[in-house]
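Dear Dr. H.,

I hope your travels went smoothly. While you were away I took the liberty of generating a structure for the chain from your last submission, since the lab meeting agenda had it listed for discussion. I wanted you to have the full record in hand beforehand rather than looking at slides cold. The sequence, exactly as received, is reproduced here:
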Amino acid sequence: MEDYLCPIAAGPIQAAVSLPGSKSLTNRALVIAALADGPSLLSDVLLAEDTRLMIEALRALGVRITVDENDCVAEITGCGGQLPVSEVALACGNSGTTMRFCAALTALANGEYTLDGVARMRERPIGGLVETLQALGANIEYLGQAGFPPIRVSAGGLNGGHVSFHSPESSQLVSALLLVSPYARRDVYIDVMGDVPSVPYLVMTTKLMDLFGVVVVEQFAYQALDSDPQALAAQPSRRVRACKFIVESSQRYRGLSWTVEPDASNATYFLSIPAIVGGRLSVDGLGTESIQGDAKFVDVLEKMGCSITREAHCLTVEGPNDGQRLRGIDVDLNEMPDTAQTLAVLSLFADGPTTIRNVSNLRVKETDRLSAMSTELTKLGAVVDEKADGLTIHPPQVLQPARIETYNDHRMAMSFALAGLIHQGVSIADPHCCSKTFPDFFDRWTSLIGSIDTR
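The corresponding predicted structure, in token form, is as follows:
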């Protein structure tokens, strides 16, 4: 596919946008609805590569799913916790949620299942989940390198009991076990210790489980990030260092009708436009009542100098006052790592260095995102200090034209579109990689930026 030449904004933006549904919520809701008693009707589902892989995997397992492509509605006939198909090979592509959720899902069944994906998926960890499923009675073997797909699940159901995760590489490993725990033979007790990444995604999982009728008892232990009592008093900063979950086995999901929120991670690219070109932009359907942690990225924009209007179902960002540049900041993004690339590109337009901390799990995503960001930001003229768990970006005096490689990573492609808003010569290689979560991203981007009034 041809490179995408980023359009330049002619002036400040004034816009309200509606965006496709959340990938994270869609795939969680699909799994829950598949297990539920009775039918579910999911509206505004995301129809993209990752969610289509999940739909096809569930269909291969015998779950009946009907999709209205025009209205983005999925009707799922729940199987009551009993997967109809007892032997199948599942192709999970490079979808972490599909691989990990289906690994846990098949462990509930009775039969033999193989799960595999693309070459990069064979480099993305699954060992922590496999160990906990084995502790609950599942028979799982690696068909390649230990700790990574492909795997074979020889399933006979899950017994329940106590399991632990120690510094899991991804919160998806824990979410996968949470989603299937109601269908174990006994209550499931889950301890997560050490470095706990992306905690809001665990909260998203348990809130969605509750919505479909399963209550999770949860407890979080926090550690202060700043030892200075005065600093803590002025702006408390803390990180989850351990969490516990209890899922009683007497519960079952109930089918229901539910509307998926817009994708908060994908919204960050649009919400960041006023930060660079000025003006004001709103994202409809995403607000203070969102159950997605990435909706709090507006807090980061506020620290950089933007003005934020927060409503229950709408977020609005207004760029800095005329003549003012964004402020460089130092921020821990452990709770919303999928926003790190957005911030990294935004930092090119700040008046000083920006440091992104505590996102080591970005190294095991669709690509090693820290290394990839360092390489591509340097092309644009930035000086980047790459660390084991983050980046410090020193913005250039003048942005350099560059062709941005995307490493088959949708977030690389979408985040760097921001770099071309006010500088010519920025192009994006392989823009089609956005099909993973946002197939028409660049069409929408071109239409939105081209509509900016030049008067």
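Two observations you may find useful: The chain has two domains: 4-20+261-450, 23-225+235-253. Residues 23-35 form the longest helix (13 residues).

With kind regards,
E. W.
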